[in-house]
Write a structure and sequence with these properties.
- The chain is an alpha+beta fold.
- The chain has eleven helices and 14 strands.
- The strands form four sheets. Strands 10-12-7-13-11-14 form a six-stranded mixed sheet, with helices on both faces. Strands 3-6-4-5 form a four-stranded mixed sheet, covered by helices on one side. The chain has a two-stranded antiparallel ribbon with strand order 1-2.
- Helix 4 links the parallel strand 4 and strand 5.
- Helix 8 packs across helix 10.
- The termini are far apart.
C-alpha cells in the first residue's frame, strides 16, 4: 500500500520546527540554572553531572523525588500566563528532597502539550529555570512532547524529577524526634500547588467567579491569587539544618493532604503534637474558599496548607537560633507547638500521609 500523497509528520499534528524554535528560546534561561558540576552542552540526549563532587561525603545517600503541579496548570492556561508554573514544579520536587536534609543537585523536566507553541514552552521552562536558581540546583535536561489528538492545542501538563545528596549520618526524620522538641512553622505564599481542584470548584464553578475578578479580601484579582508561585524553602531549610545551634530534627513539607497528615508522617509512632491555631492567621484565600463554598474548617485543613508551607521540628534549645536564622533570610516563622508522648486520649485529625507516624491535632481558633 502506498502512502497518501503529501502526508507529513506536521500534517499529523507534530511540528518539529516549532520544537526547535522553543529550544532556541529557552536556551538562555536554562544556561543560568546550573552548577559547576553540570557537564556538557545544552541539548544533548542526556544531562551529565560530575559525581566526583560528592566524594567529600563519608557515606553519601542520593535522594530522589518526582512531582507535578496538579490542576494549577488549568489556571495558567486559562490566564495564558505560563512563566511561573515552572517555579511551582521545582518547589514541589526540591522541598520534598530537602525534608531529608539533602541538598538538591539537579532536576529534569517533562512537558506534554497538544501543540508546541514555542513562546509558551519557553515561558514554562524559564519558570523551571528560575525555580532551580532559587533552589540552588541545576536544570540538567528535559523533554517536550507534542500529543495532538490526546491533548487540546492549548493544553499541557508538566512533571519534574530531582536528585539530591545527604550524608548518611545527617539524614533528618522521625527517628530523631523526641518529646520536648518544638514545632516551628514557616509562612506559605498562598495555596502553593495543592487543593486546586477544590479551590477551582468552589470559586470558579460553584461561585462562577472570573479569574479577572477583583476580590477585596485578596487585594488583587482571583487569577493573580491562584497563580501565586509556591514558596521554595530549600536554601532556608539547608541553612538551619547545617547549623548545629538549631538542633533541627525533621522537616515537613505541607502539601496534598493538609497540615495534620503531613506533620504526622515526620513524628515517630507514640508521639503527639498539638498545633495551636491561635499562633497564626491563614491567608484570606483559605477562609474565602471556606466561606464561598460552605467548606468546613476540618475539610480545609485536610486539603490545604492553611498558611504553613514548611514546618521544622527542632530541639528545645535550638528554637531561638532557628527563628533568628529564618528571620534573617526573610522567612516569617513562629512556634506552633511542642512534641510530647501520646496518651490514650489523644486523637489525630488525620492519619499520617503515606503510612505510620505519630498523631497531630489542631487546637483552638485561628488568630485574628
Amino acid at each position: 500500500m502506498t502512502n497518501p500523497s503529501g502526508v507529513t509528520y506536521a500534517a499529523a499534528g507534530v511540528d518539529t520546527a516549532a520544537g526547535e524554535r522553543a529550544v532556541e528560546l529557552m536556551k538562555a534561561s536554562v544556561a543560568k540554572a546550573t552548577r559547576p558540576e553540570a557537564v556538557g552542552a545544552f541539548g544533548g540526549f542526556a544531562g551529565l553531572f560530575d559525581a566526583s563532587a560528592i566524594a567529600k561525603y563519608r557515606r553519601p545517600l542520593l535522594a530522589t523525588s518526582t512531582d507535578g503541579v496538579g490542576t494549577k496548570v488549568a489556571v495558567a492556561q486559562a490566564m495564558d500566563k505560563h512563566d511561573t508554573i515552572g517555579i511551582d514544579l521545582v518547589a514541589m520536587v526540591v522541598d520534598d528532597l530537602v525534608v531529608t536534609g539533602a541538598e538538591p543537585l539537579f532536576m529534569t523536566d517533562y512537558i506534554a502539550t497538544g501543540k508546541v507553541v514555542p513562546e509558551r514552552i519557553a515561558a514554562i521552562v524559564t519558570g523551571i529555570a528560575n525555580g532551580c536558581i532559587q533552589a540552588g540546583c541545576a536544570l540538567l535536561g528535559g523533554e517536550t512532547a507534542e500529543h495532538p489528538g490526546l491533548l487540546d492545542p492549548d493544553e499541557y501538563d508538566v512533571a519534574g524529577a530531582g536528585t539530591a545528596v545527604v550524608e548518611a549520618d545527617d539524614v533528618l526524620g522521625p527517628d530523631r524526634v523526641q518529646p520536648g522538641d518544638v514545632a516551628i512553622a514557616m509562612r506559605a505564599s498562598g495555596l502553593h500547588s495543592n487543593g486546586y481542584s477544590l479551590a477551582r470548584h468552589v470559586l470558579l464553578t460553584h461561585a462562577g467567579w472570573a479569574l479577572d475578578r477583583e476580590v477585596p479580601e485578596l487585594q488583587r484579582t482571583l487569577g493573580e491569587e491562584l497563580l501565586e508561585p509556591t514558596k521554595i524553602y530549600t536554601q532556608d531549610c539547608l541553612a538551619i539544618a547545617r547549623d548545629p545551634a538549631t538542633q533541627v530534627k525533621a522537616f515537613s513539607h505541607i502539601t496534598g493532604g493538609g497540615l495534620a497528615a503531613n506533620i504526622a508522617r515526620v513524628l515517630p509512632t507514640g508521639l503527639h503534637l498539638d498545633v495551636a491555631r491561635d499562633t497564626w492567621t491563614p491567608q484570606p484565600v483559605f477562609t474565602l474558599v471556606g466561606a464561598v463554598g460552605g467548606v468546613e474548617t476540618a475539610e480545609l485543613e485536610r486539603t490545604f496548607n492553611m498558611g504553613i508551607g514548611m514546618l521544622a521540628i527542632v530541639g528545645p534549645t535550638g528554637v531561638q537560633a532557628t527563628l533568628k536564622t529564618l528571620e534573617s533570610r526573610g522567612i516569617e516563622s513562629w512556634v506552633c507547638g511542642e512534641v510530647r508522648g501520646a496518651t490514650d486520649d489523644d486523637e489525630s485529625d488525620s492519619p499520617a500521609k503515606g503510612g505510620d507516624g505519630g498523631s497531630v491535632r489542631l487546637r483552638g481558633s485561628y488568630g485574628g
